[in-house]
User: Fold Trigger factor from Capnocytophaga catalasegens.
Amino acid sequence: MKITKEQINPLNAVLSVTIDRADYTDKVENTLNNYRKTANIPGFRKGHVPMGMIRKQYGRAIQVEEINRLLQDSLNKYLVDEKLDILGNPLPKENDIDWDAESLTFDFEIGLAPAFDVNLQPKKGVRFFDIKVEDSVIDNQVERIRTQFGKLVTEAKVTENIELTGSFFNEEKNIDKTSTFKVETLSDKSFKEFKGKKVGDQLTLNTQNLFKDVHDLMHFLGVSHDEAHHLNVDVTFTIEEVNKREPAELNQELFDKLFPAGEVTSEAELRTKIAENAKQQYAQQADQQLLNDTTDYLLDTTKFELPSEFLKKWLRTAGEKVLSEEEANDEYEKSEKGLRYQLIEGKIIADNNLRVTFEELKEFAKNYVRQQMLQFGMPPDDAQIEDIVKRIMQNQEELNRLNQQILSQKLITFYKENLNLDKKEVTYDEFIKEVFPNEN
Assistant:
């Protein structure tokens, strides 16, 4: 057997695999002999069917099957041995095959990954946000904690700073939802209608401008996002509870509800904890945005050609359904950007040895399980953790998810250390405005 490569251009080549009869004859004969031993053919005892009849009935199919297996194995070995970085899979060219010939040649088209360089030192650095925690953020969180753990006091009627519980109803739109909300979430117009009302009162309200934020309709009326933006109907609201929440005192009893006993003993320590948690959450968002911005930068600046015609042809038969030429072209247009980034990311990972090891996966899975157990109030048990991790390591889908998380973190760390960054200190509100300018 012999394999040769004809380089068409830097991105395309043809592999020619020549197979001699001697390469597959013995395996074909062994298979035929096994068929003869087990074949049930009327008029013959099992194991006594003439070999000529077996060969005539099964010979060609077994020959073709064995040659295809040999082709697959030899192509895979050749690609590995020659370290060919291909895109897609080899595509067989149309060949007129004389299956009785002493020597058979099969041609396969292959698409090759392009060679390119990645510039990690742009003149204008990739933006990286350092989000500072403002005192107002800490103040608001302290107030939310005091409110959350505060005491509900029943009030006679609706006034400011009231928490309402009641039922929204509209038969036509199938709305029947009991909700609790603060009157501060209502629009000024809606609040005027509620003011002075008491338990048992029923109001008819229009959903347009019912709340200050239209998205509150999703939570309090139980409608979809799209419905919330276009809903314009009358609903009845029956008041079931009118409460005022008295904020909890900042004392040791409250601190021990929030943290392990004795870990926080003063308001100052509480504020420090809140600042640390907020800083950690902000850092995660800033890291994710760095990954997004770096991806955009690399796609914009790393230029290379792809074997597009080969890939379109490969896409036609790559899935479960054979695509038309037009469908394959559309699919290529949709997937080209993702393929380009896979190649760029793959080069960065390979060039800088960022691949995830099995031990890293296992340790990450252990920490993940341990955190989940702590979150649900379960004391971590090493034997139980090992058992859960073992099941995770046998689940390929779960492994892929964990692998991507570790890899993303490795890339973020690498970019922080090696990429030219334009660091910006911003508040959280400034961060949101820069990252989502069209949503402000």
User: Anything to note?
Assistant: Residues 267-301 form the longest helix (35 residues). The chain has a mean pLDDT of 92. DSSP finds 14 helices and eleven strands in the chain.
